[in-house]
Amino acid sequence: MGVVNDDSTLSHLDADGRARMVDVGGKPVTARRAVAQGRYLTRPDVIALLRDDALPKADVLTTARLAGIGGAKRTSELIPLCHPLPLDAVTVDLKLEHTSVLITATASTTGRTGVEMEALTAVAVAGLTLHDMVKAVDPAGMLTEVGLIEKSGGVRGLWTRASATADAALATAPSTAAATAPAVNAVRPRTAIVLVVSTRAAAKTRDDSTGPLISGWLADHRFTVDEVAITSDADVATAVREALAASPAVIITTGGTGVSPTDRTPEAVTVLLDTDLPGIAEAIRARGLAATPTAALSRGVAGVARGTVIVTLPGSPGAVRDGLAVLESLLEHLVDQLAGGGAHD
Fold first, then answer.
1. Angstrom distances, CA of residue 272 to CA of 76, 94, 154, 167
2. What digits encode the pLDDT tens for the residues 10-30?
3. What distance in Å separates the CA atoms of residue 217 and residue 275, rounded to the nearest whole number?
4. DSSP string computed for 25-51
5. Taking Cα atoms as reference points, which of 312, 204, 200 lies closest to residue 256?
């Protein structure tokens, strides 16, 4: 396959910048293996249908698994500059989670080039097949996070995503003596972003009162609010990722936590969390139940992603007030712990 040479030039371009198939004739024949993953986001009720094999198109998981294997075998036909490979084995595993299907593909060969693209193609084709088979009940389902997890074989040996992430962090670290100082969290202390998830508010067909409510509460608690952003339900995944990229200490969202087909905030946040904090979400639901039974329908989540606390609140002002009342006694302590203070055994 050969994506990047050791000298960091693109291997699929010749000296004149034209696309070419890499000559792998001089490479050694070694055992090569690659693992790729992706996640198909859908609703909890769809996951239940998959688990019970109750969708109109039956045997969905088996069909997706076979499609992924078939996709790996035909990778060179789909991607122009890939070499045809004699695959030793391909496996595609589908794990049902609360609001997603985790797709893991492993491909192996004994040859002169790697099988990364075969593993990635298996994930992509399996995910697309899942969508084809569930779109009748959930047209908003989405294939996300397709990426290489690890590969081995060839002159470079073992590569893993975890080690590459660590190397990238090291490469960007200061090269002076300051690099020996204790590591500092990249999160910007006492900063926050508020994200209002509302298609109508984004289209300016209704006014939003929840964003200013949350922003004012955060300001009262000595947080500097970068912005109160408004996004449509369809764009919530992108908006959450952009907010997280700004490295605030806290992100609070409002809206999109219900059971409407367009409510996707929990799915957008869950896939980013490094640490789930279900107790916070349950406490917010319990607080809301004291006022209205419909609070039980909220699918709000809470957790930590890259050191940032993320809490998803429902979209009504009353529900937001209930959520903020719960955070009143929790948020300060949580932020302090993540910053390295107030830790307990």
1. 32, 19, 32, 21
2. 455 555 556 556 665 556 778
3. 25
4. TTSPPEEEEEEEEEEEE--HHHHHHHH
5. 312
The two three-digit tokens of residue 265, written as one number: 């905030």
What's the sign of the alpha-carbon dihedral 115, 121, 127, 132?
Answer: negative
- How many Å apart are CA 220 and CA 223, to the nearest integer? 7
Name the pairing type of β-strands 308-313 and 248-254. parallel
What pLDDT does residue 55 have? 86
What is the model's pLDDT at position 326?
96
The arrangement of strands across the sheet holding 100-111 comes to 87-96, 100-111, 30-41, 142-152, 159-160
Query: What stretches of the chain show up as alpha helix (H) in DSSP?
Result: 44-51, 60-73, 75-78, 116-134, 161-171, 199-202, 210-220, 236-245, 265-270, 278-289, 317-327, 331-338
Low-confidence ranges of the chain (pLDDT < 70): 1-27, 154-156, 162-185, 341-345
> What's the gap between Cα 176 and its chain centre?
34
In angstroms, how far is the first alpha carbon of the chain from the final one? 48
Tokens of 300: 């709000």
What DSSP designation does 183 have?
P
Which of 248, 301, 242 lies closest to 276 in space, CA to CA? 301
Indicate the residue type of 78. Answer: L
Q: Is 344 left (phi over 0), alpha (psi -120 to 50) or beta?
A: beta
Catalytic annotation present for 132: yes
**In this structure, what token pair is assigned to residue 337?**
């712990």
Question: Cα 283 vs. chain centroid, distance in angstroms?
Answer: 25
- pTM for the whole structure: 0.51
Predicted confidence (pLDDT) per residue in 172-196, tens digit: 555 444 444 334 347 899 999 999 9
From 88, 132, 226, 235, active-site residue: 132
